[in-house]
Automatic annotation (TrEMBL):
GO biological process, one term: DNA-templated transcription
Domain HTH lysR-type: 4-61
Key words of the record: DNA-binding, Transcription, Transcription regulation
GO MF annotation list: DNA-binding transcription factor activity; sequence-specific DNA binding
Family note: Belongs to the LysR transcriptional regulatory family.
The name this protein goes by in its record: Transcriptional regulator
Source organism superkingdom: Bacteria
A family per Pfam: HTH_1
Keyword Transcription regulation assigned: yes
SUPFAM superfamilies linked: Periplasmic binding protein-like II, Winged helix' DNA-binding domain
Amino acid sequence: MHLPSTKTLQAFLATAEHLNFTRAADALNLTQGAISRQILALEELLGVKLFFRHARGLSLTQQGVKFVPHAEDILHRLRLAIDDVSSTPSTIKLNAPSCVTAWLLPRLMAFQDAHPDIDVELTSTIKHHPDPNFDVFDAVISYGKVPKLPSVVSHLLFEERLTPICRPELLQSHGGDLSVKQLTQLTWLHANAEQSDWKLWLTHHGERGLTSKLNQHFSTLDQAMNAAQQGFGIAVGDVTLAEQDLAMKRLVMPFDDTVLSGHSYYFLFPKQSDNLMLDRLQHWLVAGYQAQRVD
């Protein structure tokens, strides 16, 4: 049986993450046509459709959703096999949800500029709650409540602060200023079927029963935010994760206030770890974020 190449699996996972051929191509430094051809070839090999093609983007089919964890596992096992024979003590293997990539990458690049002797290998997952698998990774960035794992060291990176976020053009097309009730004129983008982020923010504003007739659901926060970046609607997103797009005016916040979700992002590693570089990395990530908040 013919097997897909690692490049094809990487193209599939990048497309599943961004739900857009152009963005996936940018992430892998390939052309949009190359990504599209690899997805078509994979679909022909598997004999199923992995994506629905829409006029303004993509969405995963049921078969595509099922294939994501399999493709991740294959690449993880391959990396583990390579690391087993080639890794050095100066390497940190870090696993993190894909939604934190925009926040994390500039900090990792600055860390490696300051510590050229340390190599950080980042593996991302579309899971918002990645399992702290320390058999494969030296450290994990996790989302949720305060971890209660006696064998694990946890450091708070930042708290999740939510507010509606959209493209500036979408806001301008509705007069540039919206009341909470006028949000119902827009398509609401949800990061989960429970619509929990929207419900939390609306309850904070005393509008618990407010709903929109136009709704689009996604399986992860970064998928909902990618849809907001493309102008498909308005999402309730984390202001820290969106800081780069907000600073560059690619996205805007129609309302000034935010609401704490009660969840946070944590840097986790085993207490018994002999990798002394983990402390240096977690101090860099925490101190860098706190210094930015002071500025």
